[in-house]
Amino acid sequence: MNLIRTSAEENLRAERQPAPASAAALKPPAFTVKNLSISFGQRQVLKSVSMEIRACTVTAIIGPSGCGKSTFLRALNRMHDLVPEARVQGDVRLFGEDSYAKEAEPVVVRRRVGMVFQKSNPFPTMSIADNVTVGLRLNGIRARSLLTERTEQALRMAALWEEVKDRLDAQAISLSGGQQQRLCIARALAVQPQVVLMDEPASALDPLATAKIEDLILELKRDYTIVIVTHNMQQAARMSDETAFFYLGELIEFGPTNRIFTRPKEKRTEDYVTGRFG
């Protein structure tokens, strides 16, 4: 009887203990964005956006076409630097470091923040292996052993290794559409970024290939912060930990995905996620 009572008491004490914080909650934010505004010439596309993106989570950016989703995404790795008429104002910090500081090199920021685009864009005349390592070679890495190691590592992380390990010298264009997109993900992972941005990575894929991409993203968030733009509400609800709803260049609402889809605070968010517009 004493053993039973002791066990029950221990269980009760254990139940009263606070739940351990998640790994994401214990890490500093991947991005801290304050008052971010972006214009192209006279046209303002993003208006004073502020949000904090947690590390090792999947954050979905949703909203109708032309609302500023992709513009926001590309600001996170300074891709707008490549557009002469673009003007970026505000503060973007990557793990506490100012991404737009004078001493911050855009190339270094982009190395830390990888990007996967809507349409798979492997280099068609390059082999599968060379596609994976092109970023490494551009950064001066020439050691064959390291390139070989990173190739296998990145392809395994992209869930593509078993499908291509016996034909690494084949041209990338020989792969299916879904495989090409996973190859692009492997290429982004090969340089060992901290964050991976994805702009509608599965919009051009069939349901089976889309499922593989989604499974891959859920695996990757163990080690990477993922920010994904998507028009697919079901995809955002399935995959993301937090969701940001953009409309007409403004951040309307941002919070845990379950709340955004079931108990949104803003009427415009509710109308969008329930399909009343957009």
Description:
The structure is a single chain. The protein is an alpha/beta fold. The protein has a domain of 179 residues: P-loop containing nucleotide triphosphate hydrolases (Rossmann fold). Strands 6-7-8-3-9-10 form a six-stranded mixed β-sheet, with helices on both faces. A four-stranded antiparallel β-sheet has the order 2-1-4-5, covered by helices on one side. Strand 4 and strand 5 form a beta hairpin. Helix 8 packs parallel to helix 9. The chain is globular and about 55 Å long.
**Structural class based on helices, strands and sheet pairing:** alpha/beta
Describe the oligomeric state of these chains in a short phrase.
single chain
- Give the helix proportion (percent range): 25-40%
Radius of gyration over C-alpha positions, nearest whole angstrom: 21 Å
Q: What's a concise summary of this model?
A:
This protein has 278 residues and is an alpha/beta fold.
Please give a handful of descriptors for the protein shown.
278 residues; alpha/beta; Rossmann fold; six-stranded mixed beta sheet; four-stranded antiparallel beta sheet; globular; disordered N terminus
Give a topology summary.
Layout: H1 2-16, H2 23-26, E1 31-40, E2 43-53, E3 58-62, H3 69-75, E4 86-94, E5 97-98, H4 106-112, E6 113-116, H5 128-138, H6 144-157, H7 161-164, H8 177-190, E7 195-199, H9 207-220, E8 225-229, H10 233-239, E9 242-247, E10 250-256, H11 257-262, H12 267-273
Parallel strand pairs: 3-8, 3-9, 6-7, 7-8
Antiparallel strand pairs: 1-2, 1-4, 4-5, 9-10
